[in-house]
Amino acid sequence: MTNLTLQLPANLQFTDDEFAQVVAANKDLRLELSAEGELVIMSPTGGETGNRNFDLLGQIWLWNGQYKLGKAFDSSTGFKLPNGATRSPDASWIKIERWESLTPQQRKKFLPLCPDFAVELVSETDDLADTQAKMREYLANGLQLGWLINPREQQVEIYRPGQPVEVLQSPTSLSGEDVLPGFILNLQAIFA
Questions:
Q1: What is each CA distance from 132 to 62, 120, 190, in whole angstroms?
Q2: CA–CA distance from 90 to each of 17, 25, 96, 136 (Å)?
Q3: What is the pTM of this model?
Q4: N or C end of the chain, less CB within 10 A?
Q5: Which helix (H) or strand (E) covers residue 107, if one does?
Q6: How far apart are the first and last CA of the chain?
Q7: In which element (H, E) is residue 117 found?
Q8: 1 — pLDDT class (breaks 50, 70, 90)
């Protein structure tokens, strides 16, 4: 199954709280809201993609536990971007200062910011062009480092502010650079 996008009439736009109610009432669905007000229903992943996501999140979790420089999130976390979209990257991270600047109430809802770091892992059902557009959207809303990982092609696109997208073919690892200092993602299990 591919993702479905519902075009909503202009007079049927969700407030943040209304969208949160729709998500809560549909716990079995992964939902996003585009900046244009389109409701995006994300399809569940297959076993291979789920296992790759788990490996990716495990590596980020281990690094974050050692360095304690920020907060890491899985794909169930919604980010209310400055452009009005609510997105849920496969993996994401924000600096601890940004987390601490949020109120306790803000932390309980979709986080009202763009992550500093985000990863999208292309699954068998994902449309590559749509995923690339999502990465550009993150970048336009404040992302500092982004990885679009395509296991099928064994390719990684690296997104950085003010720079062209860097494309790596069959890398064995990725550096978190100065955004996630000391983090090295081992891609062997993800590309296996």
A1: 27, 9, 19
A2: 23, 22, 20, 15
A3: 0.85
A4: N
A5: helix 104-108
A6: 23
A7: strand 117-121
A8: very low
